[in-house]
């Protein structure tokens, strides 16, 4: 069982979402000027309608201090609307294909094994710092083609980036402190893109330099922006998914026993973990026009929060949503979003989770969260996961 405050917070958030789905499925938070959508059907139809619900204005206001970061954010696919999004996604999808990802499987297996070798004899580890945090960063570095000697620098950049993008406005001072680090990373990636453009290899950056869509190719700045987005969108989410998997399985020993008896249940168990405890609880959009949902009228230019967590627990879509059912079918959860911005990294996240969990089951069959462990949850209500996870076997 997940202990302490993180579990209480999680249960309180679930209860609140349920109450909102029933009593106020379209809720205006006056204090923060935010509209919130809680029902599955409204979340899905909002994400399916980018003409009415834009991703663009989620970018922070540009001020001179942050202009460097803003120039990156302008090339961030998650903040684009059609037609720009269609072109950009068309280009990056050619390089970041499920086939490219599937080819990584043997390396993901090896990387995971090496990380587990380092802790095997101890009989315990912090699952986050020893496995679920390093794994996706090493995988993405290899996928991009970052040479082994630069991987530690790359890891530090990636961690800094993640820490600063989840920073609150109050942390702006910190943002300024880390700006030189970003500049160093961007300069490195610029040179790296150029080198691969001149001498392509079999890696993601080389594929990105060659991608063509409707007569257009990506320039180095766009590749840099995409790679930065991959680091932000891909690493912390996969780290959290693995932690959430262990939390869910620890809470449900019957499910763990069933997977152990029949490992072919693992893929559907991962989908249920994503439904039950989605790493991102929300996505955000801005209305481009006045729109009426469930009889409530939302004016134009309003921020709308679509609650993925609430959609995933909506009893209108999922029978007995609070039951953790690793055989649930159909399971059209919203953990990866929906529509044109559907997570481009979903095949990679699923593959990493499948390989890492299978290896954990195989090598440490008695793995459990340490009794009495104090688990620290992310402060943001929009991120659903723990920062530490002491386990033993
Ligand atoms: C988009 C979740 C892993 C890269 C998204 C969105 C969600 C999401 C909810 C949609 C955002 C929106 O509609 O505004 C997750 C979760 C993951 C995960 C829960 C892991 C469990 C990854 C990985 C990568 C990645 C491993 C890449 C290495 C992206 C990118 C987008 C995206 C580039 C933007 C796609 C677009 O705007 O067209 N992700 N993600 N994600 N994700 Fe993931």
From TrEMBL:
Signal peptide: none annotated. PROSITE patterns: CYTOCHROME_P450. CDD domains: P450_EryK-like (cd11032). The keyword Oxidoreductase applies. The keyword Heme applies. It holds the Pfam family p450. Keywords: Heme, Iron, Metal-binding, Monooxygenase, Oxidoreductase. PANTHER family: CYTOCHROME P450 YJIB-RELATED (PTHR46696:SF1), P450, PUTATIVE (EUROFUNG)-RELATED (PTHR46696). Belongs to the cytochrome P450 family. This is Cytochrome P450. It comes from Dictyobacter formicarum. The lineage of its organism: Bacteria, Bacillati, Chloroflexota, Ktedonobacteria, Ktedonobacterales.
